[in-house]
Amino acid sequence: MKKSVLFNKYTIRTTILILLIYAGLTNTAFAQNAALGSSTTWGKVDGVAVNGLVQGPSAAEAELQVACVFEYTEGDIFNPPALPANLNGMVHLDDALKGIITELRKSGKFTGHSLETLLIIPPKGTLAAKKLLLIGLGERTKFTPDLMISVGSVAMREALRLGVSNYSFASDIKDAGIDSPTALVAANVVLGSFEAYRTQTYLKDKKLSDHKPLSKIILLAGPAFYTVAGDGIKEAIAKLNAKS
């Protein structure tokens, strides 16, 4: 009888301990996932706000939406290792435009070569943004985070050339199933963007550019990557402001 009581007490304590550990792990997992629509101003560089937003590129409100794509392989955004359709911003973007992105890529009209660009003016009501800029990332097997410095620069230069006061940026690397360092990718986008911005500002001071002032950049991230991306963005902002 005593052995039975002791066994039951031990079993209960063990069960409670397991439940507490599970609850702690579960709460940690949920804490790392930001809610859809979450927004933060990570900081400012040269008076330009750098915002974070948990949203897909088809639904983010901005004057210009920038989205990145790799060179085409059959079914690449729809099949593993790409994220499932419900979490995949590029799939949502393609669906909103009735498959035109896949059609352009598959036909070779937009190859997705590294730093290749294509501007699309979406029909009213299809996207939250007024314009869509695609930027190529090249071959997925050759991707490195350093490329995102140049991608960030291209995005900024095109935004200034188009005369928008704000733009939203989606790297879509995770969506494509590429295991990349989230914080470093986000930081490199910011670094490249403001390298280009400062060059254009320098030219404007020399009366060699007349770009419209930029008010903000919106960097999109999925719920699971938002906080980590923010860490990289804040690090890049601090680095840029230390150089100003």
Automatic annotation (TrEMBL):
Residues 1-31 form the signal peptide. GO terms for biological process: proteolysis. It comes from Flavobacterium chungangense. This is Peptidase M17. Residues 91-196 form the Peptidase M17 leucyl aminopeptidase N-terminal domain. It holds the Pfam family Peptidase_M17_N. GO terms for molecular function: metalloaminopeptidase activity. SUPFAM superfamilies: Macro domain-like. The lineage of its organism: Bacteria, Pseudomonadati, Bacteroidota, Flavobacteriia, Flavobacteriales. Keywords: Signal. Transmembrane segments: none annotated.
